[in-house]
Amino acid sequence: MRLRSKSEGLASQPQRLAIISAGGELALWQEGNVKLLYSNSNYSLDCLGFSADGQWLAIGGQEGKVKIWRLATIEGTFKLIATLDGGTAWIDSLAWHPQQNLLAFAVNRQVKIWNADTQKIIISLDFAASSVFSLAWHPQGNLLAASGHGGVKIWHSCDWEKKPDLLQVPGASLDCAWSSDGKYLASGNLDRTISLLHWDNPPPWLMQGFPGKVSQVTWSQNNSEPLLAASCQEGIIIWHFDRQSKNWQNHILKHQKMVQALRLRSKSFGLSHTVRFIAFAPNSSLLASTGDDGCIQLWQQGKKLLQTLKGITGFSCLAWHPTGKYLAAGGQDGEFVVWQKSIAGKGFG
């Protein structure tokens, strides 16, 4: 199961959550109601995303097709507008431009850019070295990063034909992410390292010593002091830039099974477990993480454990609402839970 949440910024419009599953289902959650939008049990769905204005919704998966819906009415009805055929490729990575109606999606060793306004693919970009593992637009939309074997390629949207820049890494880049101020590009790597590039100020830092591959990297959306979180086996490594030493410092957070679990199982305290997903709340340094211990833990400033949430067993995805008022998580058995921030502003329930 995967989740994406979107608000169009108007008080009169409902909050929406899009949900896809390995069973080939696409559903919309809207003000507590769930509506099935699409279903094809022969193929899994693996990636989805709302456009920046919330008017477009794209999904991709095992079938090798990207399907795109457009919001037809203010009541929240979506209409299927386009189906883009990727052949036999498994579509598992897509990303919308942060300001424009441009959709980037990966097809084998290529990245294709689709313009929703003209409903045409405007360019196909060759990664060449391997399949593309992840995509990330620069916050200003002028750069598009794609990770794969050999590192991260960065294309300039003002001139797609220009030779891309390269953040070279040993082995393969599994995930890439821009800081919210656009100054830094991070790459989580297969060889147990993180590559971190200060844009226009090379060379990059190489962070080593992780116990396993770095499968996910994500940035806080607090520009005053950006935090980089990386998931690696049983731990979450938090990095911040120390102005005095002019270097990056880190500390480790670990998931633990709690007594009575504050979850569905009772386990002893102190056992660490694999971290599955991490995500910072919008415009905040509040970090949410899930582990195979069946817990969602909220970390204040990426340091202090603030809350452990109850819910379903076996989380498979995690998503914040753009306002930070809602947190949603999906499970391996097709369940999902939505938590709302308390009125007092302390925790979720």
At the first level of CATH, the class of the largest domain is Mainly Beta
Summed over residues and divided by their number, the pLDDT gives a mean of 85
Structural class: mainly beta
In percent, how much strand structure appears in the residues? over 45%
**Distance between the amino and carboxyl termini:** 22 Å
User: Would you identify the regions where 5 or more consecutive residues have pLDDT less than 50?
Assistant: 7-13, 257-275
Helical stretch tally: 0
Q: Describe the sheet with the most strands.
A: 6 strands, antiparallel
Q: Rough shape?
A: globular
CATH superfamily of the largest domain: YVTN repeat-like/Quinoprotein amine dehydrogenase
How much is the radius of gyration in Å? 20 Å
The CATH topology of the largest domain is Methylamine Dehydrogenase, Chain H
Percent helix, as a range, is under 10%
How many distinct beta strands?
Answer: 29
Listing every helix as H and every strand as E from the N terminus to the C terminus, the arrangement reads EEEEEEEEEEEEEEEEEEEEEEEEEEEEE
Q: What quaternary form is this? A: single chain
Please give the order of strands in the largest beta sheet: 13-14-15-16-17-18
Structural domains: how many: 2
CATH architecture of the largest domain: 7 Propeller
Please summarize what this structure is:
The chain has 349 residues and is mostly beta strands. The protein has strands spanning 2-6, 16-20, 25-30, 33-39, 45-50, 56-61, 65-71, 78-85, 94-96, 102-107, 110-115, 120-126, 134-137, 143-156, 165-178, 184-189, 194-198, 205-207, 216-219, 227-232, 235-242, 247-254, 275-280, 287-291, 296-300, 304-309, 315-320, 326-331, 336-340. The strands form seven sheets. A six-stranded antiparallel β-sheet has the order 13-14-15-16-17-18, with no helix packed on it. Strands 1-2-3-4 form a four-stranded antiparallel β-sheet, with no helix packed on it.
